[in-house]
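Q: Two folds, back to back.
A: First:
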Amino acid sequence: MFFPRVFLKNREESEIKQGFPWVFDNEIDSVKFEAADGSGIRQLPLSEAVVSDGSVVEVFAKSGAFLGTGVINRKSKITVRLIGQEHADQIMADSASFYARKIQDAYDLRKLRYSIKDSYRLVYGEADFIPGLIVERFVDIKKNVYLVVQFSTLSCEVFRKEIMAALRKIIKPYGIYEKSDAPTREKEGLSLRSCWDGEVREEKIVIRENDVLIQVDLANGQKTGYFLDQKDNRKIVQGLCEKKRVLDTFTHTGAFGLNAVHGGAKEVISVDISEEAVDIVRTNIELNHAEGKMTAVCADVFALLKEYEQKGEKFDVIILDPPAFTKNAKNIQKAYGGYKEINLRAMRLLNEGGILVTCSCSYFFDSEHFYGMIMKAAEDSKRRVQILSKSGAGADHPVLLGYPKSEYLKCAVCRVI
């Protein structure tokens, strides 16, 4: 069988050779394909080539060197997402086994670090060599395993049957909730889907993370239900909060604050602008019997930090874990202003030698911008800052060399003087 061949423009293959898994439309020179009318093989520019979206294609450098196999989608500027370095006929001869090996490899990688009782990200898209696929593995306190899966691109959607079969065979989950409702699907020409796959189970479960109980709403929680990427950083916070007064902002589920309580904090105030989020925080406070030490507040963090400063409030530890202030390169300067304001005000609210745990989950707001922002916030707040540690997401979010988007989370633990 002849698979369409995508040929890149001259010198466009260097990033792919380094591990980058995408081919953009403006990098493609031509496509060689088999004409539907039986007239033979033709080679035409991308705009004229007759190749169906979702087709498996082989990618070549201008010189003819083979680069890998992918799935084409001309509705997206990311026209080809690479799924393997093997030739297409090798993959498609047994695509079920191909994806079973990928899922098994991702599972084996997590088992090096996590126990069967842990909740973690099982598949991290391109970083686990399955572009567009996210799979979260949650273990509830009854020891039932749930999966939340998200197919965000056509490249994984066309292999949905094989992927779901592999997940069921290898992980043997109690329930699978598919949350394929990310806006990126619409850019890929895909409809949104959010429902149980197979048996309908409880939508709200309770997991144990770092000895803290957290309620997770599989169906209605943000993104895939819960932000597992901060698990290790929340553990770090436990060791910083003994007998401390703690302010936990952009709290979402209260996870950072609850880790602070578990670490011996004397008082924790957890803040979120969403009333729904605050309701979840209050539930989690009750689950952990933390009513005497932790309070949930519904407020705009920017306004509250300003109000606390005016009132002369002081804290020993402040946690800043905001949502991404920018999701594209165009708004970096606007995001810079937002990050700087909350960090500057937090520094002013800290007692002498207080600890600031500050984060950014925006890939576009890279480390250079992030640490530069901390430095300017310190300067403008007339504080000196020692960075005690720098970290990112946990081991369940591997960073793929050559694909910088897989390294998005920054978390700095700072001592403010």
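A: Second:
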Amino acid sequence: MGQPIELDIPHSLGKAGVRQRLDGGITRITEKIPGGGHVDHRWEGDTMHFTVSAMGQTIASSATVFEDKVHAVVDLPGFLGLFAGKVRDVIAREAPKLLK
């Protein structure tokens, strides 16, 4: 079982604006990973499910879009759970940039 990280990212873009920015920017996540990685994503209603694969690990995540926030859940597998605090800090700092 992984170590889930949950956080809310406020926005003022409306659902359609957030979806457009997430679709156009979600692959930029790999720019923050040493050596790069791969991102797959799909939408189910207002929730984008995505996986980030890098360095032999796959991280399953979701982002549910609301009118005023995005609720993100990142499930860190195995030993990556040891770094949950640091990963959460990076997500909190970098995720809002995807919405700009």
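Q: And?
A: The mean pLDDT is 89.
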